[in-house]
């Protein structure tokens, strides 16, 4: 079942359950996925679906940081709920140990020697963990392992 089909089914379920918060988030996700499909001119592949979800999740996490800094608890609570909904559609996330293992293997594969090879390692790791790990976690893991 494609992401759009899943979102449509969940949108109907949220309407029936009168869950306004989930309904609005699912509608935003469906809109983002539909817009991406229109822009690309074809049905979304699973990688493209994950890219849309990752982008939406990142936007909400970035907004959450801003609203926390601005001391807006009402909006923070709403964003936290939206993040939970978006995360429910994301692929299973890798643990920090799994990310560390992938990064260590990649460092060996690309023959990275030190911090100067950071870009080369990140470029090789990110496609492997796309949608399965937070970029900040990968970034910090690469820096940690390259500095050792």
Automatic annotation (TrEMBL):
It comes from the Bacteria. InterPro entries: Asn/Gln_tRNA_amidoTrase-B-like, GatB_Yqey_C_2, YqeY/Aim41, YqeY/Aim41_N. Pfam families: YqeY (PF09424). Coiled coil: none annotated. SUPFAM superfamilies: GatB/YqeY motif (SSF89095). One of its GO terms (molecular function) is carbon-nitrogen ligase activity, with glutamine as amido-N-donor. This is GatB Yqey domain-containing protein. It comes from Ligilactobacillus pobuzihii.
């Amino acid at each position: 079942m494609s992401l759009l089909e899943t979102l449509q089914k969940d949108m109907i379920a949220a309407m029936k359950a009168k869950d306004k918060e989930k309904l609005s988030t699912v509608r935003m996700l469906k809109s983002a996925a539909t817009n991406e499909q229109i822009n690309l001119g074809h049905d979304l592949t699973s990688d493209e679906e994950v890219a849309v979800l990752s982008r939406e999740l990142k936007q909400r996490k970035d907004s959450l940081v801003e609203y926390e800094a601005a001391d807006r608890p009402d909006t923070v609570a709403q964003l936290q709920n939206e993040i939970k909904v978006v995360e429910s559609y994301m692929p299973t996330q890798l643990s920090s140990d799994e990310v560390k293992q992938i990064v260590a293997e990649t460092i060996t594969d690309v023959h990275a020697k030190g911090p100067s090879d950071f870009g080369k390692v990140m470029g090789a790791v990110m496609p492997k963990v796309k949608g399965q790990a937070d970029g900040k976690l990968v970034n910090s893991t690469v820096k940690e392992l390259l500095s050792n």
